[in-house]
Amino acid sequence: MLRRGVGPIIEWWPRSGAGPGRRWPPGGLAFGLGLVALCFALAVAGCATLTPAQRRSESEVRLFADRTARAYGLPPIHVLVSHNPSDPPGSYRRGFFAVSAVTLVSTFRDAIVAHELAHYVLGHDAPLPGDTTDERRRAYQERELDANAKSVEILARVGGMSEERALKTVYAYLLGVHWALERYPRLNLSGHKPPCEEIADLLARFPEQRAWTASLECAATSVRDAAGG
């Protein structure tokens, strides 16, 4: 099972492709890919160092990624630790996913790692469907919603959590993003739906947990949606 510490909650960099509404780092796609390559080279070269707690956490994340791949019958996925303070807590690309060094000791590490692995398990490497920007935007948002729900399954199936605890783990992360958006209304959501809407969708997918989720912040919409559906 993954450990947790203290750290950031916002993920602004695209996780499964640029997608509609995505903001790549300055210089566009080439810069972003170059930055990933640079961070990878630095990590391999040992130019950046991790604290003992971060090293332990990195080993746990790699082990969890290996176990997840085996559980779902997938090839192993590479794990990259980014030492750039401007990088997001987590991101996913074909063949690897990255977490920041700060994420390794973050309270939200479990949710972040499980979410990126969910993109891998769900096969989100495929091009976004749709003929228009709006169609692709909606498809991208749906992938993120699916990854939220799948991350609960991964935390339970691979991490050994109960479904209730796994759902609480993912909810806490999304709620943190929601609170951050309230404080910083111009926060870049990177193509996501507003976090309160993501929370509503997540909770609606686990109706058997409604006894304790119905009163949660952002849950009212999910109860109405479930009743209407």
Helix count equals: 8
Structural class: mainly alpha
- So what's the overall shape? globular
Number of strands: 3
Order of H and E elements? HHEEEHHHHHH
Distance between the termini: 35 Å
- Taken as a percent bin, the fraction of beta residues is 5-15%
Count of the separate structural domains: 1
Q: What is the residue-averaged pLDDT?
A: 80
Task: Kindly describe this structure.
With 229 residues, the chain is mainly α. The protein is globular and about 45 Å long. Strands 1-3-2 form a 3-stranded mixed β-sheet. The protein is built from 8 helices and 3 strands. Residues 3-47 have low confidence and may be disordered. It has one domain (28-228). Helix 6 (195-204) crosses helix 8 (220-228). It has helices spanning 28-45, 52-71, 109-121, 133-157, 163-183, 195-204, 210-213, 220-228, and strands spanning 78-82, 90-93, 96-100. The longest helix has 25 residues, at 133-157. It is 52% helix and 6% strand.
Short description:
The chain is mostly helical and 229 residues long.
